[in-house]
Amino acid sequence: MALLLPASGQQQPVAPMKLEDVLASVEKHYPPLLIALQDKVVADADVTAAEGKFDLALKGGYDGDYLGTYRNDVYRAGVEQYSQFQGMQYFAGYTLGQGRFPSYEGKQKTDAAGEYKVGLKMPVLRDRETDSRRADLKKALIGRRIAELGVDQQRLLIVQLATRRYYDWIAAGRRFEIARGVLKTAEARDAQLKEASSLGQIPAIDVTDNQKAIRTRRAQVIEAERALMQASIELSLYYRNERGQPVLPAAEMLPASFPGMQSYEMSRLQDDIDLAIKRRPEIRRFQEQRSQVEVDRKLAQNQLLPGVDVVFSYTRQTGEREVARGPNDLVAALVFDMPAQRRAAKGKERSALAKIEQFDQRERFARDQVTAEVRDAYSALQAAYERAKVLREELEITEQLETAERVRFELGEGTLFLVNLREQATFDTALREVAAANEYFRAQALYDFAVAEALRRK
Q1: Which of 121, 263, 287, 426 is deepest in the core (most CB within 10 A)?
Q2: CA–CA–CA angle 296, 283, 368 (5° rounding)
Q3: CA 214/CA 183 separation, integer angstroms
Q4: φ and ψ at residue 291, rounded to 5 degrees
Q5: Same domain, residue pair 99 and 169
Q6: DSSP string for 159-175
Q7: Are 139 and 206 in a shared domain?
């Protein structure tokens, strides 16, 4: 019977595929994880956009009066820079105003070579601790951390799924080998039974009974082979080549058996719960989202304050003297403004406080959920370990009974019917033992997910 799985095509032995090989492929080539990684790029772009609000701004312009009583030209050029330090704004510029100006626009006229101005605007109350620009930047920086946590959350889920598919593949391979083994046993016995029947040592019905067993076991091999192919196809979604294309793992890459299993001590449970609460991305996401809303709350509180700004500017006239002011001027100004009712800021503050309370409750419930998940995963893992241990012992007993029944048959004290029953019992127990071992490693993958083991180095 031809095996449907692709062969490796190599003459030299192929090393068994390890779980680390699958997870390394996932990290490099698995599309859903690569999609999630783009969220970090988007978040980085948002940070850059928020930083752009502090970019140096270049300004310039020209005004000319051609048909009025006063013929004049005014040229302006300057720069403005918002600072993250206490909301200060720096400015500098050059103005050249030539011609005739009415008295109410006399400040637009400059000396022959124009005037230079530098200065700063400094908030005293509102916008000193925070403002919309700094708030947007802080939220973007927090958003970048949230994006990273989102990637971590996707990574945990994908690692769990990939791990389960890997052990499903090993289990399917073990079932296939077990089915082939019992088939080979029946086929090897067929020639012996035919010879013994021709010599009159056994009845012909034993040959017929063995032929029936052969066909039953061939059907089991076909079924197991299909299950192995299906497991290989599912695993290929996670195991990819350097071009990112799915690779069906060859039959030669199957490990000979499952890795060793271990019991988890109850004493480590509380430590693992504490680690899970510290590591799990969803809890940390709620914390970061709360921090974003806290930024909104502080901004709303800032808007409740009166606007009091101090402005200092220094101006120097250059060139031939044409205006009475200057040539050096130092101007200080105090600017005040405040909405009388401030309802917009009050509404935003109330909204932010409500959202903060929501995130506090979500974080609290997420902690409870994580604790429950770790406890449940630990319980499932221990139960799976005990069940696998019992079934391994049961398999040893059924193999002993099968061997004893075969010896009795060869000595003429038993029947082929009983031998087939013993072999079928061993086959069924072996399959249940494989299922129990697979369930243990699936439970271990769930436990590793619950404690965020994949993020251990972070």
Answers
A1: 426
A2: 125
A3: 6
A4: -65, -35
A5: no
A6: HHHHHHHHHHHHHHHHH
A7: yes
Question: Residue 166 pLDDT > 60, yes or no?
Answer: yes
Decide: 16 and 166 in contact? Cβ < 8 Å. no
261 and 409 share a domain?
Answer: yes
For CA atoms 356, 357, 360, 365, the dihedral sign is: negative
Token digits for 354?
């409500």
CA distance 29 to 218: 38
Residues 180 and 263 in one domain: yes
Does some domain include residue 117? yes
Is 194 part of a structural domain of the chain?
yes
Q: Tell whether 152 and 100 lie within a shared domain.
A: no
Instruction: For residues 132 and 303, give the distance between their C-alpha atoms in angstroms, rounded to a whole number.
Output: 10
Crossing angle between the packed helical segments 132-198 and 31-51, to the nearest 10 degrees: 170
CA distance 252 to 444: 25
Predicted local distance difference test score (pLDDT) of residue 2: 43
Domain match, 189 and 336 both: no
- DSSP output for 81-114: EE-SSTT-EEEEEEEEEEE---GGGGGG---TT-
Q: Which of 299, 6, 336, 358 is nearest to 127 (CA)?
A: 299
Is 155 part of any domain? yes
Same domain, 152 and 254: yes
One-letter amino acid for residue 295 of the chain: V
Domain that holds residue 101: 59-130+308-344
Q: Name the residue among 353, 392, 381, 355 with its Cα closest to residue 449.
A: 381
Nearest to 322, CA basis, from 115, 113, 111, 116: 111
Question: Is a pLDDT exceeding 80 seen at residue 13?
Answer: no
How many independent structural domains does the chain possess? 2
How much of the chain, in percent, has pLDDT values that exceed 70?
Answer: 97
**Residue-wise pLDDT tens digits, 110-156:** 999 999 999 999 999 999 999 999 999 999 999 999 999 999 999 99
Question: Does residue 457 carry a pLDDT above 80?
Answer: no
Residue 322 tokens read as 């044409």
Q: Is residue 176 part of a domain?
A: yes
Three-class SS state of 254: coil
Predicted pLDDT at 267: 86
pTM of structure: 0.84
Q: Based on the domain organization, do 78 and 41 belong to the same domain?
A: no
